[in-house]
Every structure is written in C-alpha cells, then in structure tokens.
Specification:
It is found in: Cell projection, Cilium membrane. It is a multi-pass membrane protein. The chain has 341 residues and is mainly α. Helix content is 67%, strand content 6%. The chain is built from 10 helices and 5 strands, in the order H-H-E-E-H-H-H-E-E-E-H-H-H-H-H. The chain is elongated.
Length: 341
Amino acid sequence: MAVTPLLRICQFSAFSIAVSANLLLLYLIKMRAGTSFGSYQVMMISFLMYAIVYAFIEILTMPVLHIHKSGVLFYVDSVLKFNPIIGELMSSLYCGSFALCISMLATHFIFRYVAVCKPHKLYHFDGNKIYKLFIPPTILFVIWTLSIYFNFGPNQVKKDFFRRVAWELYEEDIDKIAFMGPLYFTRMENGKRLFRFPDLFGAFISCTIMTICLTTCVVCAFKTYRKLNDLTIQMSERTRSLNKQLFWTLGLQTLLPCVTQYIPVGTMFFVPLFEFDLGRIGNLVGAACSLYPAMDPIIAIFMIDRFRNFVLRKEFHTVSKTSKVSAVNEERRSTIPDHII
C-alpha cells in the first residue's frame, strides 16, 4: 500500500497557503508597519523568509516517516526520491530547519527582552548590527544539518533493517530511494541489544539544541511579560500596546512549532528507544510539520492590530478618529522612543 493521498493533499495545501500568507505578511510589514517597528522589522522579515524557504524545502522533500521498532524510516517521496545524493542532502536541510526555526524564535525573544527590559542596550542592534543576531541560528542550523547527514545517513545495516517495511507497506525498494533516519540499536541472535552510538549521538545533539533554545524563549518571555505588566514603568499606552501585541504574537509563534514540530519530532526521537512499533502513525509528524509555515504568518497578521485592521478593512474607519488624539498623547506621555520597538 502506497502513501495515503491525504498526506499529499495536506502538504500541497499547506505549501500554497504558506507562500501566499507569508507574501501577504511581507507586504504588510513593508507598507503598514511604519517606523514604530524599528529594527524589529528585520527580525520579522527574516522569519517569514525562512518560512517560505522551509515551505519549498518541505515540498522538495515530501517526507514519509515510519516508526519501526528501534528505528525511524524517513524517505523522500518527491521528485528527488530516486536521487539519493541530492535527496539525502535535502532531507538533512529539512531536518536542520527545525534548529533554524527555534533558534530564530529564541533570538526574537532576546530582542524583545532587550527592547522592553533593557532599552538602553539597544544600541547593540543599531543598523547592520542587528544581523549579528543571525549568527547563532546559522551555527545551530549547520550543526543540526551536519549531525543528521552524518549520524542518521543510510548504510547497509539500516537498509536491511527497513527493507521489508519499505516494500510491504510502501512498495519501495530501499536500495533505490533516498532515505535516512535514526536506528538506535539492533538485536543480536541471543536477543541482546547492539547499540548504534552515532545515531544516539545525533539524537542527543538535536534534543540538546531544542532544550537550549526553548529554555531561552521561556526565560526571556517570563521577564518580558513581567516588565510589560509593571504599570510603574513609564511607557505610553501606544508603545505598551504594540509591545504586548508583538510579545503575544511571539508567544503563539513559539507555541505553534512546539505543537506542530517539536513535540511530534521529540516524541519520534524517544519512541524507538522503547521499540514501540507505531508504524504509519509517524506520518502524522510529517503532516503536522507541513502546517507550520502556513499557520505562522496568519498569527502575526491577526495578532497585530494594524495588520488585522487592514486585512479586515477596518483600518480606514478608525484612523481618522484616533490618529490626532494618539499623536498628542504619544508626544506628551511617551518616555520610550518608538524606534526601540
């Protein structure tokens, strides 16, 4: 039995929505964000460009995942299926995108933390200095990608282990398709486990990167939330409101990949250790991951009021009534310049 058509429908639909929604968000940032977003525009644009690239990588990979005993079969089902060299490289890039996603989210939270809690240090991100924030995500992306490529790559042991499953359930010849995946151990004739340390090391690297980035997000989020709700801090209502919108947008944009990517992928890393043969259920991981780049820009569009009002055609009904009042109030009350937002 081949791959279910529902998985393909989900992947192609998510790809179409991802590209169109992210292009819409790009337009809104360039045309509607204004100067109040300051350097943070660079952060937002970088993230949506990542989402578009991720959508293309995902559609060029079209992964099929099958959890079989102590291993996970991950094979390419796109036009690159029968090109092992390029297919395996694309699979590694696809997996490395997880690290890039969560590490970029961590840098977003770091920027929000500095902007709200330590605005006097924002000079570190002035001008082209903002691009220094992209160095850690790039490094983590490279580490994760290389780890997947070298630790989870195919070999004869894995081919023999997944051969029957690939043929009987997916009608695929394991010797001809591009595949990879962790295989934590095999069983000897006496039943003892023979651990495969490169695969275990690869899983350890992935889990470590996820833990570091998620911890950074949680710590920065907690401190930023507490500061935004401290009414003793002098901050204009407009500035406080925009900061809260951006904060909650980031919060939901962190929750989304946790639900659609990291919890499923993290579970997929641990399940084979206990030899739970979940089989085709592993394809839910691929389906969930394909939803991420489609849903992420929708969060920003509808959480930030100036974007939401434009999309829902409410902008022109409110601007004329409030612009003059807000401008006067902003000039009188704001003690934090807009460019730090």
